[in-house]
Design goal:
By secondary structure, the protein is mostly helical.
Length: 150
């Protein structure tokens, strides 16, 4: 395992721990403050809401800029959301923290899956084919054969 993949996995573990802790503590705080079950349900739904709307833009951003920036942003946003909930444990801030910790949770997971899947399933190609090949030419794999489907 290379160092970049190890850092990506470590970031994923930290973000997951942050989100899991918030997902457990925020509803309990809201119930203790006397909010209804419906309000707590909305609070729990906010953890998944940002994942729905950020999945495609985050994937495009990672494709353009690499994995380091989105994972760094995800760690920063999750940390800021958790810190805000720690300092101001009121319901509106808990909702903001749910949005802030839920969205970054999906981004590294998608990148880990993509990075691991690409390493396991993609055939190796020569460097001149990594950015695309001219139309009408077949891109050879590292073994010299043509890539499947090309």
């Amino acid at each position: 395992m290379n160092a970049a993949l190890a850092r990506l996995i470590a970031g994923q573990i930290c973000i997951h721990a942050c989100m899991a802790g918030m997902r457990l503590a925020a509803p309990l705080l809201a119930l203790r403050e006397g909010y209804s079950a419906a309000a707590v349900g909305v609070l729990l739904a906010l953890f998944a809401l940002t994942q729905v709307f950020l999945a495609l833009p985050a994937g495009r951003y990672a494709d353009r800029h690499g994995l380091k920036r989105p994972v760094g942003y995800a760690v920063a946003v999750a940390t800021a959301g958790s810190a805000a909930a720690l300092v101001f444990p009121v319901f509106p801030v808990l909702c903001l923290a749910a949005l802030a910790t839920g969205g970054p949770r999906a981004q590294p997971r998608l990148h880990c899956s993509a990075m691991w899947g690409a390493r396991r399933t993609m055939p190796r190609r020569s460097s001149r084919c990594s950015a695309g090949w001219p139309s009408g030419r077949r891109c050879p794999t590292s073994s010299g054969r043509s890539a499947p489907g090309s």
